[in-house]
Recover the amino acids of this structure.
């Protein structure tokens, strides 16, 4: 009988905590739109939109993005017209940004974390993030980090896009 009570308590606890967590809907409005980083010889454009998906009984809230990168007047990669509608691996390189921690509903996260597979080198980023620098003008810092691990000598390690950037929002 004690085992049945214990299992019932666990089911109730996880059921209630799941419902409470499910009510915390993040406000990603700040991050949605087109962002640009530009120097004399580089231009990186990031386009983002919000996306909600249902998995294992829970709604997950993310920001999906895609980008274009130009260097020395040449387009290195351009996927801006293919802003995907899923986080599943469909072969399209994408940026999937998620919240750092649960906040009460409708609060804007100061930082979002992401992982990215470089479309040229196929190198996978480690723990990377965007962080709000200012809201007027809307600016974020982009920090792309290396994934720690063991790699073969034939594997290209690194990124074809800048690792550290300050992006400015140009439109919603």
């Amino acid at each position: 009988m004690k085992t049945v009570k214990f299992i019932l308590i666990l089911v109730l606890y996880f059921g209630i905590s799941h419902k409470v967590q499910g009510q915390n809907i993040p406000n990603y409005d700040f991050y949605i739109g087109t962002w640009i980083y530009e120097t004399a010889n580089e231009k990186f454009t990031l386009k983002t939109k919000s996306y909600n998906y249902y998995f294992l009984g829970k709604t997950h809230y993310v920001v999906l993005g895609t980008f274009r990168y130009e260097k020395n007047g040449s387009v290195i990669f351009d996927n801006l017209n293919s802003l995907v509608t899923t986080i599943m691996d469909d072969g399209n390189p994408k940026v999937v940004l998620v919240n750092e921690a649960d906040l009460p509903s409708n609060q804007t996260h100061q930082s979002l974390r992401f992982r990215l597979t470089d479309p040229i080198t196929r190198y996978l980023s480690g723990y990377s993030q965007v962080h709000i620098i200012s809201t007027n003008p809307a600016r974020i810092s982009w920090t792309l980090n290396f994934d720690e691990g063991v790699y073969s000598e034939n594997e290209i390690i690194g990124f074809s896009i800048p690792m550290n950037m300050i992006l400015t929002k140009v439109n919603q």
